[in-house]
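Researcher: Checking consistency across runs. Here is UPF0173 metal-dependent hydrolase ACFP56_14415 again:
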Amino acid sequence: MKITFLGHACLLVEGSGKRIIIDPFLSGNPVAPLKPEEIQVDAVVLTHGHQDHSSDAASIALSNECPVVAVVELASLVGLSGAQTIGVNTGGRYQLGDGVSVKFTQAFHSSSYEVDGVAHYAGQAQGVIVSMGDKVLYHMGDTALFSDIKLIGELHKIDIAAVPIGDHFTMGPDEALLAAQWTGAEHIIPIHFNTFPPIKQSGETFVAQLEKQHQQGHELAPGQSITI
């Protein structure tokens, strides 16, 4: 499994002959290393509807003739663009191919999606478990700390977790450390920080704290990758 950080909370995940982009926020993001038209994927996966996670979902899906996989309410709203969508719900799994699947888990966060400048309720925010062969990624999405992260870690053999640390809109670094520990993952990628002033945090400090609890942190710059 190869994971490329594309800024904010966006990850490009490759493995077992498939490419998935999670939470594409590229246009309008000054640190994004790629433009939406440069993305080649087999599916777009959304954790929730907020603009900084979904703004390029429809355009990428349309240009790649691939589906947007999201919770049912959000999928319906994205589908108004003409993009192909697949609606799922919390606890459900979508199979993209042999050995490749996306499972949705709960997250504690709000969710809305704009259509023609009007914000609409976009269902419950989600985390996603991406399985590619024998490797598993847990992208927490935007979330507060909640105790069932420990259960999610017990139910899935998670190799790497993407954990929001920005505070203000999600949990902050201290709670993110506990969330990371609960996943049981060997590798941790901090996400959702330093894009905007309210979520300014030190990724270096967070990674150093992870080492103290025997986890390997990876503060990826936009465009950087890790292969596990």
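Researcher: Does this match what you'd expect to see?
Model: One thing to look at in this run: The chain is about 20% helix and 30% strand.
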